[in-house]
Amino acid sequence: MRTTTSKLTTKDLDAAGLPASSVVRMKLFTLDNQLVLRKAGVLGEKDQRCVAGAMRQLLSVDITTTDNFP
Q1: Could you give the CA distance from residue 57 to residue 44 in angstroms, rounded to a whole number?
Q2: What ranges do the domains of the chain cover?
Q3: Strand, coil or helix: what is 55?
Q4: How many CB atoms lie within 10 A of CB 1?
Q5: Cα(24)–Cα(59) distance, rounded to whole angstroms?
Q6: Using one digit for the tens of pLDDT, what is the confidence trace for 21-37?
Q7: Distance CA 65, CA 60 (A)
Q8: Which of 20, 25, 51, 61 is 20 to 30 A away from residue 11, measured at CA?
């Protein structure tokens, strides 16, 4: 995963089940579950660690990976 200020580009496409590289943007908001139409994929462990590390830096909190996110 390549990091820029507030976004990360996924690298492990096979683990994510995605056809192309995707961007994870760090934005904090709430969204009602009824508005989520489908799940595009799941980040691989390496990409999850990168996202968790970026979130730790941005929020200054301890965020673990894998089973904590639906």
Answers
A1: 20
A2: 1-27+39-70
A3: helix
A4: 19
A5: 16
A6: 888 888 778 889 899 89
A7: 15
A8: 61
Identify the burial level of 33 via C-beta atoms within 10 angstroms of its C-beta, where 0-12 means exposed, 13-18 middle and 19 or more buried: exposed
- pLDDT of 70 above 80: no
Q: Give dist(CA 67, CA 70) in Å, integer.
A: 7
Which residue, 24, 19, 20, 29, is CA-closest to 6? 24
Burial class (CB in 10 A: 0-12, 13-18, 19+), 47: buried
* ∠ CA 54-22-18, rounded to 5°: 120
Shortest CA distance to 2 belongs to which of 43, 53, 50, 65? 50
pLDDT of 35 reads 93
Does an H or E element contain 23, and which?
A: strand 23-25
Distance CA 16, CA 46 (A): 10
